[in-house]
Amino acid sequence: MQRIWAREALLPEGWRDSVLIEIAPGGRVGAVGPDTAPTTDCLRVGVLVPAPANCHSHAFQRAMAGLTEQRGAEPSDTFWTWRQRMFAFLERIMPEQVEAIAAQVQMEMLEAGFATNVEFHYLHHRPDGGPYADPAEMSARIAAAAATTGIGLTLLPVHYQFGGLDRRPLGAGQRRFGTDPDRFARLVEGAERALGVLPADTVLGIAPHSLRAVAPETLAMLAALRPGAPVHMHLAETPGEVAEVMAALGRRPVEWMMENVALSSRWCLIHLTQMLPAETRALARTGAVAGLCPLTEASLGDGIFDGVTWCDENGAIALGSDSNIRISLAEELRQLDTSQRLRDHSRAALATAARSTGRRLLEDVATGGATASGRGRGRIEPGAWADLLALDTTHVDLEGLRGDTLLDSFAFAGDSGMVAEVWAAGRHLVRGGRHIRRDEITAAYRTAVRGLREST
């Protein structure tokens, strides 16, 4: 039984002082209660909050960070030109490099304050598109990385069949992704076997890539492969995607999904940066989670998610690091809110009368991320997974702060240097701001990217 005493903890009912949390051997919170005189057999922290899930990641793209900022021959650089560079990068990456890169990503997520990696995993095959001897080889590499880092893992094998809504074959850069429905079902079975080495909090979900890349009429069948498990999908990310869906299906992407799919809290729809206000309001009411990646969406020029309208409808939100160009919980929180301010010429756009901006966002992405990752409710309460984040209250920018103001300072003046301790399902993985296996993980990552970058 692990015991943590917090001077201050954010519980479902709000802030409470002098809280003792017990973590049962299976990794769930066993008890939460007041304790003004902690014993010596507990770890003392300043402030304890739920540690969110990182709801959307393509781990291998971490090795591309900083490599795609040059202007190409095209008159303008867009998401689509970036994608072509990403496809070229994929021609060289091998399974052992994927494992080392994924471990680095997961370690950085933990050190940033995330407890879980929700991996939107579409890199399945050899560079020529042929299967590995084990079709789930790449899924096994993501699982092996999680075994090294200890992070909670929700693995989402991705079905990716077509090069567009006209059902053209996949291009050369996409051949490592390709699956038909039967091949995808076998890949999911292999991924389930690969995850067998991981702890009980591990989750396997499903990810139809997008309306562009799958047969829309197969969505219900794909979701039925894992009844009750999370289903994630890119939706309404770029103007080009909206135009293509309109031309092929006669509806905007969100309109088509709401008319043809039984959306619920099982679904996490990624980006949603190209929605009309009426679509935003209606989709929020379905219970589907908006999977937001503000740093990547800014990097790729996708657009700005309408967080004000969505949150006014009590829509569920989660945060992910997507391309992993920068992995920072504090910076994702900040970018989400400040993008609303820039668009609307406002301040504290997502605060409420009862909760400051930092607190509202942290609580909402913890609960929304838990839903999107299949990990429960995302709160510090008995029976929940012990996904916990302790901030360093000795940090100069947190000196003398408490409660909501402390979380505002983390979100708007802070960075990962304020993260002191992190637990994933009770596994104490970040101690004093540093992952317990940082040196070996970083050494393996250096070796992996050196080979890739020397040939770039």
**Fourth-level CATH superfamily of the largest domain:** Metal-dependent hydrolases
Determine the CATH topology of the largest domain: TIM Barrel
CA(first)-CA(last) distance = 49 Å
Q: Which architecture name of the largest domain does CATH use?
A: Alpha-Beta Barrel
Strand content: 15-25%
What number of structural domains do the residues give? Answer: 2
Indicate the structural class: alpha/beta
Spatial strand sequence of the major β-sheet: 3-2-1-4-14-15-16-17
Backbone CA Rg: 21 Å
CATH class value of the largest domain: Alpha Beta
The low-confidence parts are: none
- Estimate the mean pLDDT confidence: 94
- Major sheet description: 8 strands, mixed
What is the overall silhouette? globular
Record field, number of beta strands:
17
How much helicity do the residues have?
25-40%
Count of DSSP-assigned helices = 14
